[in-house]
TrEMBL record, chain A:
This is Cytochrome c oxidase subunit 1. Pfam families: COX1. It is a multi-pass membrane protein. It catalyses: 4 Fe(II)-[cytochrome c] + O2 + 8 H(+)(in) = 4 Fe(III)-[cytochrome c] + 2 H2O + 4 H(+)(out). Residues 28-540 form the Cytochrome oxidase subunit I profile domain. It comes from Pseudosporangium ferrugineum. PANTHER family: CYTOCHROME C OXIDASE SUBUNIT 1. GO terms for biological process: electron transport coupled proton transport; oxidative phosphorylation; respiratory electron transport chain. It is an enzyme of class 7 (translocase). CDD domains: Ubiquinol_Oxidase_I. The keyword Isomerase does not apply. The chain crosses the membrane at residues 47-65, 85-114, 126-145, 172-196, 208-229, 270-289, 296-316, 328-352, 364-389, 401-423, 435-457, 477-501, 584-602.
TrEMBL record, chain B:
It comes from the Bacteria. This is Uncharacterized protein. The lineage of its organism: Bacteria, Bacillati, Actinomycetota, Actinomycetes, Micromonosporales. Keywords: Membrane, Transmembrane, Transmembrane helix. The chain crosses the membrane at residues 12-34, 54-77, 98-123.
Length: 639, 127
């Protein structure tokens, strides 16, 4: 065949290949397809929307709390209602918003960034989403009937154990979090396997995008940290329902056991929340600084070491419990030195800005807002690592100020940056720059006006979790400023929501790569087609979209046909062969419904109902696992 | 190629990268666990060995393991860097990055073990 004939033949064969891929991967819009989809992009968007709804609900709780605290001796809420609101606010923000929102980002973006066609286990992915949605619905439904958890988001015993907390409020907490843990664990395993086995050929470990590293680090933390929380919640439920006495010293139990188990999970969880946000910052900055993040190996070092050291700092949450001081020293050392990898990241971002050509757009503004607030939160965090200081301010509003700077500043600012940055990929539309800048300034000013005064009220001795306070303690002004700030912040966040909705309805169509980004998601259409890539990319650098060899390979390499994805080796991303991907199915939804039945049965004490749910799960999972009739080639195990 | 294959994967590479982290985990479980559990039970020794001795060993042994991992990572990193200059094998680039990360991580873990262990010299175990 002559060269001319080859060139004429290629476009025709490529368009035929694209048509075949559309047929193999496309999902016709229908109610069934809505419930049965396993497309990582649809699931990722659902995670984000559902987590966003939970954020609005938990944020509304916060606004009512701040209204109650605006003036001394206010009577907007009863003490019982206040307890439920602050518990649901914290629990939902930590468990139902932050992590699921980042799982949404990860679901949508990780396969695109590594050049894959879907997650490694698409049905497990769908299952994880449904479990998350049901768990959140159960927990927020309890609020509607006045039976929401009311023992604080970390649920310390003996307060949360019987006889001090009767009713089903804390059963909703323990069972709800156990339920949710199934989703989080499934999602984490899926991320790890996807990244380890499905990276594009050539994407060795030294070419993996930092956001993907962050999601993998987060997933490992989830897998090692969550069992401690699950065990603690199972023990709490057994204590409350069946009198197991795990946490009852009168019967040989131990109250500090709860705190150890909770914080073995709880401190890594701070990084589980913040780490993906740091990954977003590393993904957003290159596009607006026109260069890669400096010191890539050190950024990976920071992600890896934070993921490990975060497991050795939990006792700094227990510095006021009377443990031996020598024990404190081991945790104090780790808590202080974990700031080194965090600092590496901050300095790397600053140097990236310093050495780049900055283009100021809204995602960049939110990244700068993140750096300011996260550094302030990190600064007070170092103060807490010092045992003597920690013991002075523990359980005061200073703690509330600190963790909002870390969690809101460290997670929500990058999250909003990420929403604006990837909105073209998520929706195929562009946002309005002017409105988004208003949103940034209102969020930034509102956030600092809300939480900065809490440092002062905390130092003045205001304890956290009090439903009101007398007017002669010097706390009035600081609380009033905080409440005004909360309303400004709410308006800013509302503008973010309006901006997103406006973009979806009336935004201009987004080009494939509006920012000149460096990672592979920008090689796809906006929004991406169901198969993501016609050709599985061959990666030659850590910035594949800025690398001519990679972009040339994308245009010229032969398409990967059929409903297949590529498997590659763990360390070097060497091609190992194509694997057949699972089709859409209702089994994930039915399995999740089975778990919902078990949880509701246990919650209401209808054990026969829980048993029926267990049978449903068994039957569905057996059907799910039943080996399909496939050739060894289709199964990807042919020698 | 067998030498390069050994550099690119295998036990020694993973020890050089993660040895410090594992040693630090050992240090934390041993030193903290023995101190807290023994003191809570009202004892100052375990099997006739004073707590300070056990905690001290829980500092020194992990520190030595971390130091070994650090030296191994440094040696491997130098070789990987030299091999990368001589050969165009992309695996050497990846191996070099892993060992650089291992070197820095081991140094960090050694610092944490040393900083926590310094307290053994100052504080009495059950204070």
């Amino acid at each position: 065949m002559s060269v001319e004939t080859e060139e004429q033949a290629r476009p025709a064969s490529r368009s035929e290949a694209v048509a075949a891929l559309e047929k193999d991967w496309g999902e016709r819009p229908s109610l069934r397809s809505w419930f049965s989809t396993v497309d990582h992009k649809r699931i990722g968007r659902r995670y984000m929307v559902t987590a966003g709804i939970f954020f609005i609900l938990a944020g509304t709780d916060a606004m009512i709390l701040r209204t109650q605290l605006a003036r001394p001796n206010a009577t907007v809420l009863s003490p019982e209602a206040y307890d439920q609101l602050f518990t649901m606010h914290g629990t939902a923000m930590i468990f139902l918003f932050s992590t699921p929102m980042f799982f949404g980002f990860g679901n949508f973006l990780v396969p695109l960034m590594i050049g894959a066609r879907d997650m490694a286990f698409p049905r497990l992915n769908a299952f994880g989403y449904w479990v998350f949605a049901f768990a959140g619905t159960v927990m927020f439904s309890s609020q509607l009937v006045g039976r929401a958890p009311d023992g604080g988001w970390f649920g310390y015993v003996p307060l949360t154990d019987t006889p001090y907390s009767s009713g089903i409020n804390l059963d909703v907490y323990s069972l709800g979090l156990l339920f949710l843990g199934v989703s989080t664990t499934a999602g984490a395993i899926n991320f790890i396997v996807t990244v380890v086995k499905m990276r594009a050929p050539g994407m060795s470990l030294n070419r993996v995008p930092l956001f993907v590293w962050a999601i993998v680090g987060t997933s490992f933390m989830v897998i090692f940290a969550l069992p401690a929380l699950n065990v603690a919640n199972a023990m709490l439920f057994l204590d409350r329902r069946f009198g197991a006495h795990f946490f009852d010293p009168a019967h040989g139990g131990n109250t500090l056991l709860w705190q150890h188990l909770f914080w073995i999970f709880g401190h890594p969880d701070v990084y589980i929340i913040v780490m993906p946000a740091l990954g977003i910052v590393s993904a957003v900055l290159p596009a607006f600084c026109r260069r890669g993040v400096v010191a890539y190996p050190l950024m990976v070092l920071a992600i890896v070491t934070i993921s490990i050291i975060s497991f050795g700092v939990w006792v700094h949450h227990m510095f006021a419990t009377g443990l031996p001081q020598l024990s404190y020293s081991f945790f104090s050392a780790a808590s202080t030195l974990i700031t080194i990898p965090s600092g590496i990241q901050i300095f790397a971002w600053l140097f990236t800005m310093l050495r780049g050509r900055i283009v100021v757009r809204t995602p960049f503004l939110f990244v700068v807002g993140f750096i300011v607030t996260f550094v302030l939160g990190g600064f007070t965090g170092v103060m807490f690592a010092i045992t003597a200081f920690d013991q002075q301010v523990t359980d005061s509003y200073f703690v509330v100020a600190h963790f909002h700077y870390v969690l809101f500043g460290g997670a929500v600012f990058p999250m909003i940056a990420g929403i604006y940055y990837w909105l073209p990929k998520f929706t195929g539309k562009m946002y309005a720059e002017k409105l988004s800048r208003w949103a940034f300034w209102l969020v930034f000013i509102g956030f600092n006006t809300t939480f900065m005064p809490m440092h002062v009220s905390g130092l003045l001795g205001m304890p956290r979790r009090i439903y009101t306070y007398p007017g002669d303690l010097g706390w009035d002004l600081w609380n009033l400023i905080s409440t005004i700030g909360a309303y400004v912040l709410a308006v800013g966040l509302l503008l973010v929501l309006i901006g997103v909705l406006q973009a979806i309805r009336r935004g201009r169509l987004a080009p494939d790569d509006p920012w000149g980004g460096d990672t592979l998601e920008w090689a796809t259409t906006s929004p991406p087609r169901p198969y993501n890539f016609v050709t599985v990319p061959t990666v030659h650098s850590v910035h594949p979209m800025w690398d001519e060899r990679t972009t040339a390979a994308l245009a010229t390499d032969p398409p990967l046909p059929d409903h297949q994805a590529m498997a590659t080796s763990e360390l070097d991303g060497r091609e190992e062969g194509a694997i057949e991907m699972p089709e859409a199915s209702l089994l994930p939804l039915v399995s999740a419904l089975g778990i919902l039945v078990v949880v509701l049965g246990l919650l209401w004490g209808w054990y026969w109902f829980a048993g029926a749910g267990a049978l449903l799960i068994f039957g569905t999972v057996a059907r799910w696992m039943w080996p399909p009739e496939r050739t060894p080639e289709e199964a990807g195990v042919a020698s | 190629m067998p030498t390069q294959t050994r550099r690119a994967g295998g036990f020694l590479l993973w020890f050089a990268v993660l040895g410090g982290a594992l040693a630090w985990a050992l240090h934390l479980v041993l030193a903290w666990g023995v101190d807290e559990l023994t003191c809570r039970s009202g004892n100052t020794s375990v099997g006739g060995i004073p707590i300070r001795g056990i905690v001290g060993a829980g500092v020194v042994v992990p520190a030595l393991i971390t130091l070994a991992a650090l030296l191994l990572a440094w040696r491997g990193w130098r070789r990987a860097t030299a091999a990368r200059d001589d050969d165009d094998d992309p695996r050497m680039e990846r191996t070099g990055m892993m060992l650089l990360i291992g070197m820095c991580a081991n140094a960090l873990f050694l610092s944490i073990i040393a900083a926590g262990g310094a307290a053994v010299l100052v504080l009495s175990p059950c204070q």
